[in-house]
Structure formats: C-alpha cells, structure tokens
Amino acid sequence: MHKDDKQQNRPLLNKAKAFLALKAWIKTAETATDHMLKCICSDHGAEWSSLAAEEWKQEAGFKWQKTTPYVSVQNRRAECTIRSLQEKMCAMLVQRSVPKELWPYAIMAAGHTLNLTPSANVNRIPYEDFYCKSAHGLAKQLCVFGCLAWVHLPKKDHEGKHGTRAFPGIMVGYDNEHKGWRFYTPGHAPSIQWSNSAMFHEAKGWHD
C-alpha cells in the first residue's frame, strides 16, 4: 500500500486476511493524516472483489480502480515496490546470516527503512511527504538489520548488584507502538520482544 512513495507492508498468513488488514491500515492512515481516502488502485485479486469489499467502498464513498485481469503492467508501480522490498529483504537476511524464518521482520524493516530514505525520483522522504512531519527522530533509530545487540533489562529485573543487566539478541525491526526496537533473542523468552534500550554492535551478527 502506498501514497506517493510511502508504502506499508504487513505479512499475512493468507490472502483471506488482506481485506481486513487493508481496512485497518486505511483507518490508521486517515486518523494520522487527517485526510479521507479518495481512491484505491489495486490488482483484480479475489480478496478485493468480495461482497464485503464492495459494501465498504459504497459506504465510505471512495473510488476503487482495479487492473484488467492478468495485465500486471497496469499495476506496475506496486509490482516495482514489491520487487524492491523483496530484494532488500533478501540482502538484509544474508548480510548478518539471519535465520530465513525471520523474513516477515526483514521485509517490514525494509519497508520502514525505505520510508525514511529520500526517493530517487524526487529526492524527498516518503514518510515526511505522507505525514507532513519530520522523520529525523525515526531515522536516528535506524541500525543494521540482524546486528548483535545487548538488550538492557529493566531495573526491576536486575538480580542484585552483580546480576545480569543485559542479554544478547539481534535487531530485527522497529516497534513504533513502543518507540523502540524488536529483537530476536533465542536464549531468552519470549524469543521476539521489544526494548527501547540496547547496545548495538552493528559490525557483528549472532554468529560472529
């Protein structure tokens, strides 16, 4: 999903969940930007042709433009975005030998990074164009995907003066809800968690 060069990706278990995910994101985007949805451009997938999708379109009053079946060139912009995300995701997984099963986190991190990177076409930052506010704070959070990190324990979890203060993990994304990072911590339950306090070693991965 994108407006101008801003894109939003969300890995789903199956296409049946795509419609509800789209509705939820549109609602979030409308609230964040104070603008109402005017038009959706999509392929002609079955998930966009359901009765529920048609009722939503009629109720909300926006236009839904769909490509001719089997003519992917009409959806070229989305296809290019998907290809760019997939290529970046693969590079991020390989760079620090991140387990392949963490690909959903890699593709979300790839999208987050692209949204904070000046576009090649107009040299503007997609996040700033979309939300009309600075991306400086979010850009300062960026670090190498899959890099080794020591995640700091909250003070309440410290085990005395000489107890554990941090545990190792790798950075696998950004958690906007908590204003922190996501970490994969195979030796510490739960294996995926968030924190806003960590020491990063961006030149190293889990196996270095």
Automatic annotation (TrEMBL):
Describe the location of the Retroviral polymerase SH3-like domain by residue ranges: 147-206
Keyword annotations: DNA integration, DNA recombination, DNA-directed DNA polymerase, Endonuclease, Hydrolase, Magnesium, Metal-binding, Nuclease, Nucleotidyltransferase, RNA-directed DNA polymerase, Transferase
InterPro entries xrefs: Retrotran_Ty1/copia-like, RNaseH-like_sf, RNaseH_sf, SH3_retrovirus
Q: Does the keyword Nuclease apply?
A: yes
What GO molecular functions are on record for this protein?
DNA-directed DNA polymerase activity; endonuclease activity; hydrolase activity; metal ion binding; nucleic acid binding; RNA-directed DNA polymerase activity
Q: Which protein is depicted? A: Retroviral polymerase SH3-like domain-containing protein
Entry keyword annotation includes Cell inner membrane: no
**A single GO BP annotation from the record?**
DNA integration
Database matches in Pfam families: SH3_retrovirus (PF25597)
PANTHER family given in the database record: TRANSPOSASE, PUTATIVE-RELATED, TRANSPOSON TY4-P GAG-POL POLYPROTEIN
